[in-house]
Design brief:
Layout: E1 2-7, E2 14-17, E3 22-26, H1 29-50, H2 54-62, H3 77-87, E4 88-93, H4 101-104, H5 117-128, H6 149-152, E5 155-156, H7 164-172, H8 176-181, H9 183-187, H10 193-210, H11 214-229, H12 234-248, H13 256-263, H14 275-290, H15 294-308, H16 321-346, H17 348-356
Antiparallel strand pairs: 1-4, 1-5, 2-3, 3-4
Length: 359
């Protein structure tokens, strides 16, 4: 289960993805009690560190110019905390695995020590949010970002920290200078709530439409596992190419390099001018990594830096030169990969046609 500082009354559970069994709702009774206890513990901890009472902390929070009007009529802080627990939104996976999830694990939809499906969905939404792919007769450009799991989730099975009051303080009671720097989060938070939720619901519909059989499910789940575990390293570059190969490369290809040179440039963002050279350069890096040719890899990364990163300033107190290049290279590759994955979900005929063409 994932809890976010989003507050709205949901009369009954909303299905985000039927095939992944992901739902959105308010907290059930058991979790309300648990979260109520955790919020009070956090309030006590903040009060102890700030020499303020819990009532003062909540009073400052809800009496700011950016407070939620829903809570303004309550005076006792226990009542406000209880109301918070009534309106908090959570995202979770059904306990009983769906027919597709049971293909992977017939006992549970979310094994205890694996990344949960709801986290994978949020990671997917954030990942394709960077896409820039232009679709004819459709608006191009960035999707509306709604939240980043790493920054905005206040509780989940993957996180031990619970900081909902701290998050709310950030959103509603931050200094004026913070509001001016980021007016989206502070001035339009509740106005954007429906748009934000609709993005996630739209992704769920796209995923359910995409999954037409076992092969579709296993491919998508493979992609979700990789992008949920990836970091900025050379391992990420190699694993990203495995996704590209699975999506757009003909299954009986003659030359993987030629397949990518022919098919991938259309997904490369416009800020990269020489798209074919970029594909050749990053494929060379991937190839040297995959085959363990570390000496040739150093030359390939330097060639990439000269061609695409020469204006970048490197702080060697943060990273070594090679890791700066890996980070920037994977950043470019993520943008390309986001375009490909987005197209797989939303423009499937294009991907089907590409994959059927043997170069």
């Amino acid at each position: 289960m994932m809890i976010f500082p989003l507050f709205k009354k949901i009369e009954k559970s909303v299905i985000i993805s039927e095939k992944y069994g992901i739902l959105m709702s308010n907290l059930d009774l058991e979790n309300k009690k648990y979260i109520y206890k955790k919020i009070k513990e956090e309030l006590d901890d903040i009060a102890e560190k700030s020499s303020k009472s819990t009532a003062q902390i909540l009073g400052e929070l809800f009496n700011s110019n950016y407070y939620c009007e829903l809570f303004s009529k309550y005076n006792e802080y226990e009542d406000k905390v209880e109301l918070l627990c009534e309106y908090i939104i959570c995202i979770y996976t059904e306990e009983e695995p769906t027919p597709y999830l049971s293909l992977k694990n017939e006992f549970t939809g979310n094994p205890t020590w694996e990344i949960s499906n709801e986290v994978k969905f949020i990671e997917l939404l954030n990942f394709i949010d960077r896409r820039t792919y232009k679709v004819p007769e459709k608006k191009s450009g960035q999707l509306n970002s709604w939240f980043n799991y790493n920054h905005h989730a206040v509780y989940s099975g993957e996180r031990t920290k619970f900081d909902i009051i701290s998050s709310m303080t950030l959103y509603y009671s931050a200094p004026d200078i913070m509001r001016k720097k980021n007016p989206y989060h502070f001035n339009n938070y509740f106005q954007q709530l429906n748009v934000q939720v609709n993005n996630l619901l739209g992704l769920g519909r796209a995923v359910d439409k995409y999954i037409q059989g076992q092969q579709d499910y296993f491919l998508l789940d493979y992609i979700l596992d990789i992008i949920s575990n990836n970091t900025h390293s050379y391992f990420s570059i190699v694993s990203s190419f495995s996704i590209l190969e699975a999506i757009i490369v003909h299954k009986n290809y003659t030359s993987l390099r030629q397949e990518l040179i022919k098919k991938l440039p259309q997904f490369v963002p416009d800020y990269i001018e020489n798209k074919e050279l970029w594909v050749k350069s990053i494929y060379e890096i991937r190839s040297k990594m995959a085959h363990g040719d570390y000496k040739a890899l150093q030359k390939a990364t330097e060639k990439y830096f000269t061609a695409f990163l020469r204006h970048m300033e490197l702080d060697y107190y943060e990273y070594s030169r090679i890791n700066w290049i890996y980070n920037a290279t994977y950043g470019d590759l993520k943008n390309v990969l986001a375009n490909v994955i987005w197209s797989m979900l939303y423009v499937r005929p294009l991907i089907t046609k590409l994959r059927s063409q043997k170069v």
